[in-house]
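Anyone able to model this chain together with nicotinamide-adenine-dinucleotide?
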Amino acid sequence: MNVEKLVVIGQGYVGLPLAIRAVEAGLDVVGLDVDGGRIKRLAHGDSFVEDITTARLGRALASGRYHPSTEYADAEGFDICVITVPTPLRDGTPDLSFVEQAGTGIGPYVRRGTTVILESTTYPGTTDELLRPLLESASGLHSPGDFHLGYSPERIDPGNPTWRLENTPKVVSGLDEAALHRVDAFYRRLVERTVPVDSTRVAELTKLIENTFRQVNIGLINELTMLSHHLGIDVWQAIEAAETKPFGFMPFRPGPGVGGHCLPIDPCYLSWQVRRKLGRQFRFIELANDINHEMPEHVAQRVMAGLNRAGRAVTGARLLLLGLAYKRNTGDMRDSPAVEVAHLLRALGAQVHAVEPYAEAQHLPDGVTVVELTEAQVRRADAVVVVTDHDCFDYDLVSRHARYVFDARNRCRGPAVERL
Ligand SMILES: NC(=O)c1ccc[n+]([C@@H]2O[C@H](COP(=O)([O-])OP(=O)(O)OC[C@H]3O[C@@H](n4cnc5c(N)ncnc54)[C@H](O)[C@@H]3O)[C@@H](O)[C@H]2O)c1
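re: yes, here you go
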């Protein structure tokens, strides 16, 4: 197959790495995004996605085959189009408006023989029931038949240097055999291994299984952690011991809750679809969501109780939070449970200071003073709360100098440390 022109709609955490990888594989790539600010930055060689270095972006631009653009007209004459736009929740239900806008935008440029692939995470049936009719009515063509349509879930793990786009197996699907063949051949140019499945619905469900599995297991271990606290048993040690079983066990760690744009959201796409199509509840998902939502409150209560035992009230206490991002070693604060912990402690009357070396200033939560992690800051704090365990933090310094540490991540050791 001789693919010449690729359009990637959405130049965010998923779309930008895909576009750059395709340039490196020899394709001519238009990176489309409605966010003019992002496109301007990309055109100037300024990457905002941690996994794409400025040098790598610079090389892609210098090749003359990467064209960041806000104009759908630049898609004219494309061979393959991949859609990587957001799929958030609105009032607890899937918001597919971005996918609809992308489909409506690209539809007029779909020709006979072109291939369109959806990568955004969504409920099973979206590609066939929502995207297909949009593309058909905008193009006047049909799929299967005139153009090819497929789904391939993204598995990117931002900030993970080991598992990258090219060495993570890619699940691929199409509405029919011909579409599957096109989608598979495209991704085989970009990744080491593809995993073809029989239908777009199977591929859509695959992604939701992966994220629901994580969400449910984190919920399980979080509930066990809260109960173990009341039973007076060290859950962390029990997990470590269980982990020595060489088969049939996979460890999950407790934490202050789940955040970001995947785990709290993706399983809800599945439970929403189950409710809509079957009129039934997906009980595991609902339960895991409830438990994981409880965790920031649990952390705040435990900090309050810890201060109380030392004869200090949370009102007026000076607290030092380590980490505000939802995930270790990133600055991403979208739906971060750490931010919720900060708000809850402030609402209890504490003065909240936080150390967050990765966050951009404009995204920091109101009322939280950002400081450096120094011995003086640690000594001044009535309590240090480890919420997001970035590797760059000096946990030894914290363990040695803090009066009291509440550690939600099992990083600190010593007599002043209480673990989640
Ligand atoms: N980030 C991850 O780790 C990850 C991993 C797997 C799957 N996903 C899924 O991939 C999808 C994209 O996620 P992301 O993290 O890249 O989001 P993102 O917000 O980083 O990027 C999406 C981009 O799409 C642009 N956009 C929105 N509507 C558009 C339109 N109509 N036309 C052109 N551009 C448009 C936005 O301006 C934004 O720049 C989501 O469905 C997400 O659930 C994300």
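The CA atoms of residues 87 and 97 lie 8 Å apart.
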